Amino acid sequence: MPPRTLASLAHALSAAPDLDQALIALGETIAELDRGASLALIQYDARRDMLRDRLTPVGAQVVRSSMETTFDHLPEPVRTRVLAGGPFIDVTDRSADYARLCGFSAMLEGGVLAVRGMRMDGMLGAVLALYEPRKIFGTRTTERLAPAMALFDLAYARLAERDAREEAVRTLEDVTQRVHGEYVRKLGALEAELREVRNTPREIPALDRAEMIAVQAEAARALEEARRATRRAVLSDQQLAAAVSQLEQAHIELHRRSEALRQRTRTLYLVDRALTLDAETTDARTLVDALLALVGDDMQAQRCSLMLRSPDPDYLYLAAARGIAPSVSEGMRIRIGEGVAGRVAAAREPLLVQDVREAAQHPLLRDQYFTTGSFICFPLLYHGELVGVLNLTNRAQRGIYTDEDVERVRLLGLVISLIASRNGLAERLLNTLHVG
Fold it and tell me: In what order do the strands lie in the sheet with 333-335?
């Protein structure tokens, strides 16, 4: 198996169907960093203030064991920082004792125990414990694991929210069935009692006036009880409808949060991919094409181009493109201040076009490849200097770009500006394209 990178870990965590698979992916990453280290996730029961279940990734499976240990066994300073979440905290004074408390009974003496809190919705949900051999030289495993832990935090929050949502659905279904069953039972009993009263013959010679009054009072009482039961049933239905509405809103909010977490994971992957290209690619042509493909695929742009500033400060030239008209060739120059890209370069402010009729008025968009009115033209700046302009249009499946997409392009544009400036891509490509 090839070494796990941040990109592959991010993909594994985003695709993990449950907490066990996410722990296995994190365990593989730790094994590559330090084979002598051991990891355990201890779930926390806030109602009982107990550390109850211990989950340990071992190869391709997760071993579960019960702990039933009170949280106050940990030292007071460590408890306070674990409740607040954040990075790993070393338990330096009695690491061996607390390592056995956390279930690391087979570890060698002389190791170092570090713990960190895993929070969800502002509350402590679990404690992550890492026991590693003590090192004389080199970087601690907890420090090298920091980027991977940032990704695991996102995955843990996503999975914990999904589990909470499923538990809420099950609880609501149980309450609904119990309330409905009780309502049906009571209503049936009242209807049977009412039928019995109505079917009683009126001409009973044995009934005197007092008994008749008692029967009428009982019938009135039964009718009143039935009315109250009906009223309670109506209120129960209203409460149930309100609960269902709140649950639907909770589903929508959880979906929004899950989508936001997915977008953050995707952004981390794209930044890691761009920096990897910068580190591994020396050819300017290959690097420019790869960067354009990276942002174009992420934004689903069927037509995109990257323009860099030429030695003549008044001009931009086309450095890389995809899906443009055949008549437009790489190296073509435009004057800053003319056309859509030139005006964006002069103003140094991004341009977002969403309406088809508005977009059709731009002369640079009137060609046979134009299929949507959604268009982003973004200036690339580095330390206040213009580096170039990034153009994205023709979103797949006739999608519309939004302000959120502009913010994503802003982050990717900063990375592209940094890489282009650091590598001198504008000057190096001129020698290849022979642009003046």
Answer: 333-335, 315-322, 301-309, 385-395, 375-382, 351-353
Task: Please state, rounded to an integer, the average pLDDT across all residues of the chain.
Answer: 82
- 386 touches 309 (CB < 8 A): yes
Instruction: Indicate yes or no: pTM above 0.85.
Output: no
Confidence label for 348 from pLDDT (cuts 50, 70 and 90): very high
The label of the residue with tokens 């690339």 reads 380
Indicate the residue type of 261.
L
Give 132's strand partners.
112
Binned at pLDDT 50, 70 and 90, residue 434 comes out as low
Residue 219 Cα to chain centre, angstroms:
61
CB count, 10 Å around CB of 92? 12
> What burial letters (b/e) apply to 157-168, b meaning 16+ CB within 10 Å?
bbbbbeeebeeb
CB 34 within 8 A of CB 43: no
Using CA atoms, how far residue 302 sits from 222, 266, 267, 321, 332, in Å, is 73, 20, 20, 10, 20
Residues 6+ positions from 374 with CB-CB distance below 8 Å = 353, 354, 359, 393, 395, 399, 400, 401
Helix (H) or strand (E) holding 294: helix 284-298
Residue 129's closest CA among 207, 26, 226?
A: 26
Please state, in angstroms and rounded to a whole number, the distance separating the CA atoms of residues 310 and 109: 63
